[in-house]
Design a protein that fits this description.
Length: 115
Amino acid sequence: MGIGGDPVNGLKHIDVMRMFNDDPDTDAVVMIGEIGGSDEEEAALWVKDNMKKPVVGFIAGVTAPPGKRMGHAGAIISGGQGGANEKLAVMEECGIHITRNPAEMGRVMQQILKG
């Protein structure tokens, strides 16, 4: 499910996580985010307190140069917030199983589901 990073969007990460959490046919969730903004961190805090299903997380932009404006307004890192490593740290602290390599998302999820 894609949910844009524009300043005005229809859904927030928390909205989507809530839907997956309430869906009886969803066993686990992969949350992919990007640099800029704080939606992923807010969703991670919600996951910590509410999510009943395992979550794997990835943030695109780990290799983005610090201080460089990226392709769109949602990817602006400002005031030391919104960086990929900062987002991944919050996600991990909230119990989300993170990976810094998108090719590893499936493997990480498989390990979690096997127990």
